[in-house]
Design goal:
446 residues, mainly beta, 8-stranded antiparallel beta barrel
Length: 446
């Protein structure tokens, strides 16, 4: 989501930030994930989460968030430290209450001072004390109405200890900056889509090794570079690892690793963020991975919504819907490697914030993970996504028809997956060539 008054600063930042992952993590970048050190060390799991949990969040736009969820009072607080509210100079703050809604937390803002007193603020999917994904309803559509923004990935900030070193895998959270009718978009052909790195620690000092970065086409996306170690310390939004190491912790270029291995990287305003998880120490059972139900988000931030004025129906899908996926029937998919699902219906076709998770999900997206990478457990870098192609714009990829006889389009994707505390998680990135948008899918086992 754009930050008022920030375009020039973003432009200057973007010149230097294309290789932020290099300056942040890479001691000796490698051209194959097989060069990662293989270790058995795992991060310590903290005690059982309490009723009050706080998270540090990163959005694809580069905005940095703090999200606090109180299960005793069913209340929340979400602060976007990268976006000022009005002319006060204070960060954008959402306070309110939540209700349980189809597996999600449905946030309602109560500090707007408007009528009605409860304004929709977005949906959140939380594993208490481990990870929270918040979809803020604070963007603006082409008609100036509230709209669903990109989801915020958030984990608790803590200074964990990785004495032996551990391996992490990530996917990019693509940045899209709307500038009038144009947008500055993550470039699928040349920008980093996924990768991996290793972390070891000594007290509050974090050391990073063996960064691998790749495009969607599996080509190395960045050369090697040197870096300084990071310092884990408290900051205004929570405990973060500041890189390069120094005595002051800013709201940009920060890494946060949660207690069960989920992590985020914020690279600064206007820059793509990253989200990932601990690399499994042994290969995943892919059949088991696709045999369970998931809830999550499908984010396509380049899709303008709505694309028409009422009472017409938008021609494109909503840009950042909540979603559900489950095992794909063998009649529709390759058995043992596929999930089927999609977004939940909207209560109001012209309101992209009106998702209704109590209704049956629109099962119009198929994810085929394909084979697991032979040398990187939990990496599926030959995955595909199949979606409807009503205007037959799909070229250069597999085409055909779905079970309803509608045209479909299949395009490449990459996913990283893991099983943390007996629950699976899948993070996927692709380029939707039908709707001309980056596509991110974030799924958590129900």
């Amino acid at each position: 989501m754009p930050i008022p008054g920030e375009p020039e600063r973003r432009k200057r930042k973007s010149i230097a930030a294309g290789c932020v992952w290099l300056a942040v993590l890479c001691a000796s970048a490698c051209n194959s994930t097989s060069s990662l050190y293989k270790t058995t060390a795992v991060p310590p799991v903290l005690t059982t989460a309490g009723p009050l949990n706080s998270y540090v969040g990163a959005e694809g736009s580069g905005d940095v968030w703090q999200i606090t969820i109180n299960h005793t009072t069913n209340s929340f607080r979400a602060i976007d430290y990268s976006q000022e509210a009005g002319t006060s100079g204070s960060p954008l703050t959402l306070n309110g209450e939540f209700a349980f809604d189809g597996g999600f937390l449905d946030f309602s803002q109560t500090n707007t001072g408007s009528s009605p007193a409860f304004e929709p603020a977005g949906f959140t999917l939380e594993i208490p004390g481990r990870v929270a994904f918040f979809r803020p309803d604070t963007a603006t559509d082409l008609n100036g109405n509230p709209a669903a923004a990109q989801p915020v990935a958030a984990v608790p900030g803590s200074c964990l200890s990785f004495i032996m070193g551990v391996n992490f895998q990530f996917v990019t959270m693509p940045n899209v900056i709307q500038q009038g009718t144009n947008s500055v978009v993550w470039n699928a052909a040349s920008d980093t889509a996924y990768g991996s790195f290793q972390v070891s620690t000594n007290g509050t000092t974090w050391y990073f090794f063996n960064l691998s970065q790749f495009t969607l086409a599996q080509a190395p996306s960045q050369p090697s570079a040197s870096f300084s170690p990071g310092l884990c310390a408290p900051a205004i939004m929570g405990t973060v690892v500041s890189i390069p190491s120094n005595s002051s912790v800013s709201t940009t270029d920060t890494l946060v690793v949660g207690p069960s291995g989920f992590f985020i990287l914020n690279q600064g305003p206007g820059q793509s963020s990253a989200v990932g998880l601990l690399q499994p120490t042994s290969p995943l059972n892919t059949s088991s991975l696709v045999s369970v139900p998931y809830l999550g988000f499908v984010s396509e931030p380049s899709i303008p919504f709505p694309s028409c004025s009422a009472p017409c129906t938008p021609s494109a899908p909503p840009p950042n819907p909540i979603a559900g996926f489950g095992p794909c029937p063998a009649t529709s998919c390759l058995p043992g490697t596929s999930l089927q699902g999609g977004d939940f219906p909207l209560a109001n076709a012209m309101d992209s914030t009106s998702d209704d998770p109590t209704q049956p999900v629109n099962a119009n997206i198929i994810i085929n993970l394909g084979p697991q990478n032979a040398t990187s457990n939990g990496l599926y870098n030959s995955a595909t996504v199949t979606i409807p192609d009503p205007n037959s714009v799909c070229t250069g990829s597999a085409e055909g028809q779905n079970s309803q006889g509608s045209p479909i389009c299949t395009f490449p994707a990459v996913a990283v997956a893991g099983q943390l505390e007996d629950k699976y998680a899948i993070f996927l990135i692709a380029q939707d060539i039908v709707n001309q948008s980056p596509m991110s899918i974030y799924l958590f086992q129900e």
